[in-house]
Structure formats: structure tokens, C-alpha cells
Amino acid sequence: MDTYYIDGKFVGDDRALISVKDIVVLRSFGVFDFLITYNKRPFHLDEHVQRLENSARYIGLEIHHTNSEICEIVQETVKRNHHHMESAIRIVYTGGISSDGLNPDGRGILMVMVTPRIELPPRWFTDGVKIITVDVERFLPSAKSTSYLSAVHAIQQAKKQKAIEAVYVDRNNRILEGATTNIFFFKKNRLVTSHRDILPGITRSIIIELAKDFYGVETRDIDSSELYDMEEVFLTGSNKEVAPIVKVNDLQIGNGRVGEHTRRIMQLFRDYTNSYGQGKHRLQLPAICTQTGFA
Ligand SMILES: Cc1ncc(COP(=O)(O)O)c(C=O)c1O
Predict the structure, then answer these.
(1) Alpha-carbon distance 98 to 106, whole Å?
(2) Residues with beta carbon inside 6 Å of ligand 1?
(3) Euclidean distance between CA atoms 283 and 211, whole angstroms
């Protein structure tokens, strides 16, 4: 059995319960963050907790813990799950009890759920995968709130089309991000990723830092018409890491195989996570984000 932290206590996962009166249940008023471990070390925990705090501020949810308290609780919860080879960590902060179902009465609840990390199919990374595009605009996109209805719905559509992710396109035909990933593409030796109205992915920031030494990196709006000129495409995210894309809807990308630049990015990320896990290397990432935009 896994051990979770909930509202001041460490308990078996089957005893981690919240009230049905918590406003997160009926109104999805809460925030969360997700990260994994490498060599049992939570990967860039500080940045994930900073993003949780930012998310809470954007949606107007009060957090009654300091960032360092949350980091300590996460570290302790990971330690209590030492039976995992590697862990997936979900940090959730609920809006708390609401008497009228619209206004939180007071304090929310902090939960840390630590589960075994599930390995993704290796052929995704050797052969590349398909994604689809969907018309979605997230409300307050810089916040990772518990309200992920559009993501769940988009992933259902993706699965029906044998795709692993759905990428959001907005009313201005801008390609924004995936349901739980950020998107990058290569064109003429330059690496491009969208820069606003997205969640500031921690993996995205790391890839920008790692890629800078090898490629010109552009962070800008991406028009959906650019799909036709993309030479290589990949997604980044805490769970999928760097996932090569060879098909978008019915459009083949490049020659339909994982391209050499993407393979290099995957290797750079693998090397970095290995050395991070051994405590040897830690990139200084730019400040997580502001509400209006970030680099
Ligand atoms: C909407 C959205 N965009 C991007 C990401 C990728 O962020 P990260 O690299 O920090 O996992 C996520 C991850 O959960 C997400 O939910």
C-alpha cells in the first residue's frame, strides 16, 4: 500500500479521504501539480511547488503553507514510499469546505499522493507517436487547476484516433500546448515553442536551456498553418518527458521517423535527468512565469 499525506497526517492511500463538502468536489476549485522522481529524487521540486503557489494565486485560492513546508512534506511522503523504484507525485491543494457551494469557508486541504511511476511504452520513443489537434482554450492557462474537463475530453478524442495526446488550437489558429504537455518543432535548424497562453512547463524550460547550446530557440506564437512546414515535432512533460511526434492528425511529419534533432534533444534530457538523479547537475531555470507571459 502507498502512503499519502493528507491534511497533517500520513495515512494509507485507502484512508486519504476528503469531505464531499470541499468545493473541489462540485466546483473543481483547487490546484495541483505533478512531478516524478529520478533515482528517488523529486525532479525540480522547488519549481513545481512554486508553480503550485502561482496557480493558487491566479485562481484566488489561499495557501496556508509555505513553499518550504510543502517541499518538506513531499520529501517525507516520498521517503515513506521507499518501496517504489521511482515515484509519480501529485500535490493537490483543495479550496476547502464551502457551506454555500460557491465560497470557500476557510482553509483548504493539502494532499500529497505518491504512487509508483508507470513506464510508458518504449516504442513511443523509438518509433514516434501520433497526436491530434482540438479546438480548446483553457481558462487561466498559466494555472494548473483541478478543473481539467477539457483535457479529459480531448484525451478521449485522441484515443479514438489512436493518438497519445491532443494539442490545443485557439480561435486565432494558434497552436498552444497539449492536454498535459508543451509542444516544440524544428524548422531549418531552429527550435520553436509557443510562449503564451500555456502552462509554463518545467520540462519545457529545461529543454529550452539544454537546447540553447546547439540550436537557435524561438519562443513565439505558432500558427496552425505552420504544421505543414514542421520538420520534426516533439512534446515535453513531466510524465512523457520528450516524446517524438511523427503524425499530427493525418499529416505525416518529416519522413515519418524520429528525426536526428529530436533524438539529440531526447539524449540531452536523458543525460540531464540521470545526472540530476545522482545529485551532480541542477540547471538554474528562469522564474517560472508571470500571468501575462514568460520566456
Ligand atoms: C496543460 C499543460 N501544459 C503543459 C504541461 C507540461 O508541464 P511540465 O513539463 O511541468 O510537466 C502540463 C503538465 O501537467 C499541462 O497540464
Answers:
(1) 8
(2) 34, 144, 177, 180-182, 199, 201-204, 236-238
(3) 13
Selection from 229, 164, 235 nearest residue 193 by Cα: 235
Q: Which of 87, 116, 145 is the last residue of a domain?
A: 116
Query: Atom 16 of ligand 1 has which residue's CA nearest to it?
Result: 180
> For position 202, which CATH number holds?
3.20.10.10
Cβ pair 258, 128 in contact under 8 A = yes
- What residues make up the domain containing 242? 122-277
Please indicate, yes or no, whether residues 39 and 135 belong to a single structural domain of this protein.
Answer: no
Alpha-helix runs per DSSP H in 129-259? 149-160, 202-211
**pTM to 2 decimal places:** 0.96
pLDDT in tens, 111-156: 999 999 999 999 999 999 999 999 999 999 999 999 999 999 999 9
Domains in the chain: how many in total?
A: 2
For helices 202-211 and 260-277, the axis angle rounded to 10 degrees is 110
Q: What share of the chain is helix, strand, coil (3-state, %, to 5)?
A: 30, 30, 40
Q: Which residues does 191 contact at the CB level (< 8 Å), separation at least 6?
A: 184, 185, 211, 215, 216, 217, 218, 261, 265
Which candidate, 291, 23, 240, 235, places its Cα nearest to that of 118? 240
Report CA-CA distances (Å) from 90 to 6, 77, 195, 236: 12, 11, 25, 18
> Which of 58, 175, 238 best tests ligand 1's pocket when mutated (most atoms within 8 Å of CB)?
238
